[in-house]
From TrEMBL:
The chain crosses the membrane at residues 24-43. This is Uncharacterized protein. It comes from the Bacteria. Keywords: Membrane, Transmembrane, Transmembrane helix.
Length: 54
């Protein structure tokens, strides 16, 4: 998911995006964000598994 921000079009500033928009997305899609947050850990563990199987 991407959030496009155009302050000229929306008349808002980055403070609004970080204070209002991003927290709303996180509350709405919290499980998705948690899953994505752990992907790096899973990828690192998979790399180690492949290295150990050689």
């Amino acid at each position: 998911m991407t959030v496009e921000f155009n302050s000229a079009k929306n008349g808002a500033d980055l403070k609004y995006v970080f204070d209002q928009v991003i927290p709303l997305y996180i509350r709405s899609f919290g499980a998705f964000f948690a899953a994505v947050a752990y992907m790096d850990v899973l990828a690192e563990e998979e790399d180690e598994l492949w290295k150990s199987s050689d």
